[in-house]
Design a protein that fits this description.
The protein is of the alpha+beta class and 143 residues long. Helices cover 22% and strands 15% of the residues. The strands form two sheets. The chain has a four-stranded mixed sheet with strand order 2-1-3-4. The longest helix has 11 residues. The termini are far apart.
Length: 143
C-alpha cells in the first residue's frame, strides 16, 4: 500500500494531513512539491481524479497568482497547469494519492475519506481542534 502526499512543510494544513496519514501507522511517500513539482500530466491526472477543476487546484493566497495574470478567466487549463508546474507555490496543497483515490485535503480531515487503514489513536490538529477520538473515530463537529 502506497500513500503519497504532495507536501509543503511550511503549511499547517499539510502538516496536519501528514500527521493523520501517519496516525494510521503508514509512513507515506512525501513529495516536497516546491522542490520536485509533478509534471503537467501527473498534475492534470491528480486534479481529475480528485474531482476538482484546475482553477480549484490553484492557490491564490501568498502566491504570484494575480501578478502572473492567472485571474484571467480566458486562460486554458493547459496554461494554468503550465503556470503551476513552473511556479509550484501555485499548486494548492496538500494533494494526497492512495489506492482509494486522490483528494485536495483542505481541510486536512478530508484525507480520512481515502485512507485505507483506520486511525490508531486520538488526534488533534496543531490548533488544538480534536479530529479523532481515543477510539480512533472521527469527532463529530459541534452544531
Amino acid at each position: 500500500m502506497t500513500i503519497t502526499i504532495y507536501h509543503n512543510p511550511a503549511c499547517g494544513t499539510s502538516r496536519n494531513t501528514l500527521a493523520l496519514i501517519r496516525n494510521t501507522g503508514v509512513e507515506p511517500v512525501i513529495v516536497d512539491y516546491l522542490k520536485a513539482p509533478p509534471t503537467q500530466e501527473v498534475l492534470r491526472e491528480m486534479i481529475t481524479k480528485a474531482g476538482i477543476s484546475v482553477r480549484e487546484a490553484i492557490r491564490e493566497k501568498g502566491t504570484p497568482f494575480a501578478e502572473l495574470g492567472l485571474n484571467n478567466m480566458s486562460l486554458s487549463d493547459d496554461a494554468l497547469l503550465a503556470a503551476m508546474v513552473a511556479t509550484p507555490i501555485l499548486i494548492n496543497r496538500p494533494l494526497v494519492v492512495t489506492e482509494m483515490g486522490v483528494r485536495l485535503c483542505r481541510p486536512s480531515e478530508l484525507v480520512l475519506d481515502i485512507l485505507p487503514l483506520p486511525q490508531k489513536a486520538a488526534f488533534s490538529k496543531e490548533d488544538g481542534e480534536a479530529v479523532i477520538n481515543a477510539d480512533g473515530n472521527k469527532v463529530k463537529p459541534h452544531a
